[in-house]
Amino acid sequence: MWTFCLHSLFREYGWQFFRRIALPHPVKTAQAVWASGALDYAGDRTEVGAGDSERSFGSARSLVGVGFCLKPLDPPCPSGRFNHDCRYLESLPRSEAGEIPAACRQCAIREIGTLALRAGAAVYVMTSAQDILLDVFAPALDEGRFTAGLFTLCRYSLRPFAVGLLAGGVRGRMFPFEQGDCRDYQTWLKADRGTKEERTEINPTNRSAIREFLRAAAPDSPPTAGFEKRGNVLFPLLAAESALR
User: Fold this and answer.
1) This prediction's pTM
2) What is the mean pLDDT of the chain?
3) Contacts from 233-241 at CB under 8 Å and sequence distance 24+?
4) Burial tier of 180 (Cβ tally within 10 Å: 0-12, 13-18, 19+)
5) How many angstroms separate the CA atoms of 238 and 18, rounded?
6) For residue 16, is pLDDT > 90?
7) Who contacts 120 (Cβ-Cβ below 8 Å, separation ≥6)?
8) What is the mean pLDDT of residues 95-104?
9) pLDDT single digits (tens) 165-187
10) Which of 65, 80, 209, 238 has its CA 20 to 30 A from that of 121?
């Protein structure tokens, strides 16, 4: 954690975090750093924030964050790799009615994103730390845009990511990748710039747990008619809203 922070002080992300989060909210940031130290990062998942994350998930302010490095390489993702795009999710529900492209069939982002839509949650394909700061942490802290979340990311990033969530008042679950993830700062920095030749994987136990979590959140959610992209985030579009357009 402290190695990550020390290196980040000399990067754009570090200065942006200080300016957008730490400087205007020093008490919340200090509490987030302190609380992040008490979390368990060794298991299959890390619970962030107090309360029942399952009961708080599924509202309009829920977010599912998946790493861009989950995108397939062979055949390659039709949306490209280092971006916030997912052609399949962005064309739902039409894409569900047609044949699923070969690359999308094996993609965890497609599966998780489809389940997130049924749960009424927004979906965010995570790329750089700076984009995550501007798209997730800052809006959660400043506007309360997100209050519950489920995220997949490399184990190396878990504690710094937890600090951002806790500072923004977001509670939920973080699932670490099992293979292909970043294990040190230099590898993480390359991936943060878009250089990631390996494809990450979620272990079967965690993938099953994510499915169960999102399915459990779905029954009490209003019906959705696809996603609407606002900025870099895919927000669920209610069926009633879709009918008015």
Assistant:
1) 0.90
2) 87
3) 233/63, 233/84, 233/122, 233/123, 233/124, 233/135, 234/86, 234/89, 234/90, 234/113, 234/122, 234/123, 234/124, 235/122, 236/60, 236/116, 236/117, 236/120, 236/121, 236/122
4) middle
5) 36
6) no
7) 58, 59, 60, 62, 217, 218, 221, 222, 224, 236
8) 80
9) 999 999 999 999 999 998 888 89
10) 80
Cα–Cα distance measured from residue 245 to residue 240, given in angstroms and rounded to the nearest whole number: 9
> For helices 108-118 and 204-217, what crossing angle results, to 10°?
20
Six-digit token pair at 18? 């200080």
